[in-house]
UniProtKB/TrEMBL annotation:
Keyword Phosphoprotein: no
Annotated Gene Ontology cellular component terms: extracellular region
Pfam families xref list: Self-incomp_S1
BP terms from Gene Ontology: rejection of self pollen
Record keyword Repeat present: no
Protein name: S-protein homolog
Entry keyword set: Secreted, Self-incompatibility, Signal
Signal peptide: 1-28
Primary location recorded for the protein, binned into one broad class: secreted
Natural source organism: Punica granatum (Pomegranate)
Location(s), subcellular: Secreted
Length: 139
């Protein structure tokens, strides 16, 4: 029955499978936002990059935040990954602020919220009030 349409059916099924696994996301954007959540007026420094983009270094003052938006991508050869290096008052930390394998389709489809705190950095699952990820200061 499908011999007549063989290649078309295969292409359709492949596209359907990619869409179902998040590889095809039409105009869906995710925003990563990091905010200070500690007493005082000090600022913290960040540097963000992925395999394709270097978003550079930024100083985030108390009462402000840093955010960026992108279209997540999951393919057979990898998923979206953004890495942060963060420094605050002699403390330091490097971590994956966005990892498509961890975050897409179950944790933060539209917003990934992170807070810099006295003991480290906490991440929040979209729509939740309590953190689900914690990275302590490493230096």
């Amino acid at each position: 029955m499908f011999k007549k349409y063989g290649s078309s059916v295969n292409v359709f099924i492949s596209l359907l499978m990619l869409w179902n696994h998040g590889a095809i996301v039409a105009d869906a954007k995710t925003t990563v936002k990091i905010v200070p959540d500690y007493p005082g007026k000090s600022s913290f420094g960040i540097h963000c990059e992925s395999g394709d983009y270097d978003l550079g270094g930024h100083i985030i003052a108390q009462g402000s935040y840093y955010s960026f938006s992108f279209k997540p991508n999951i393919t057979p050869w990898g998923s979206t990954l953004f890495h942060y290096a963060l420094n605050w008052e002699g403390r330091g930390l490097s971590f994956e602020i966005y990892n498509g394998d961890r975050d897409l389709n179950n944790r933060c489809d539209e917003l990934c919220l992170w807070k810099v705190q006295l003991d480290g950095v906490t991440g929040y699952k979209e729509g939740e009030d309590n953190p689900d990820i914690f990275f302590p200061w490493t230096r």
